[in-house]
Amino acid sequence: MYAAPVQQLIDELGRLPGIGPKSAQRIAFYILKSPAEDAARLASSITAAKAKVTWCRRCFNIAEVPSAETGGSGDGAECEICRDPRRDSSVLCVVEEPRDVIAFEKTGLYRGRYHVLLGALSPLDGIGPAQLKIGELLARIEAEGVTEVILSMNPNTEGEVTALHLINLLKDRSVKLTKIATGVPVGGDLEYADELTLGRALEGRHEVR
Ligand SMILES: [Zn+2]
């Protein structure tokens, strides 16, 4: 229907999460109508983000790729939170995605560290424990002397299944296991909860074992 380059742009946009065919078309034509420098800035910001951003080797939050200028040592990137010596390394807040880290940071109430699973268990989508950073979590609890693990999954089915799996894995370890309170609307995403609600959910966390 469209010239091949236009159709290709629509197809690529349509592969993004939450973008249906109609939105993909609308964004494609918006880009085509934009000044060339605007479109170039969008394209180069995607390329730059992919080149300069990676996962933190410790917690799997977003981290900047170490470069010669930033004193990169070659053994992988660490995020700002893991590099901050003022953060309490004995408390780990386990979340699904890096955007959940941002949500907790916005509450201003949390001084511990994070562990990002990079997803939630979803057998129907082929996401099992091996696809998540669960082994890395277990290793950290030992290596970093963690005394409390706060389970902060999204309040939906996948999040609940993931939390149960972690409770089973951790129940025999000498670590305090807590879960954030259910002040967050069920079925929603943590990132959509306002700071006050999320702060209350964190402070109202309860022991699950
Ligand atoms: Zn980190």
Structure, explained:
This protein is α/β, with parallel strands linked by helices. A five-stranded mixed sheet has the order 4-3-5-6-7. Strands 1-2 form a two-stranded antiparallel sheet. A hairpin with a 6-residue loop joins strand 1 and strand 2. Helix 1 packs across helix 2. The longest helix is centred in the N-terminal third of the chain and has 17 residues. The protein starts with a helix and ends with a strand. The site of zinc ion (ZN) has 8 residues, from helix 4.
> Which strand-content bin applies to the residues?
5-15%
Count of discrete alpha- or pi-helical segments spanning 4 or more residues = 8
Question: What small molecules does the structure contain?
Answer: zinc ion
Structural class: alpha/beta
Terminal CA distance reads 59 Å
Biggest sheet details: 5 strands, mixed
Determine the mean pLDDT: 90
What is the radius of gyration? 20 Å
Helix content: 40-55%
The order of strands across the largest sheet is: 4-3-5-6-7
Can you tell me the residue ranges where pLDDT is under 50 for at least 5 consecutive residues? none
Secondary-structure element order, as H and E?
HHHEEHEHEHEHEHE
E-strand count = 7
**What is the overall shape?**
globular
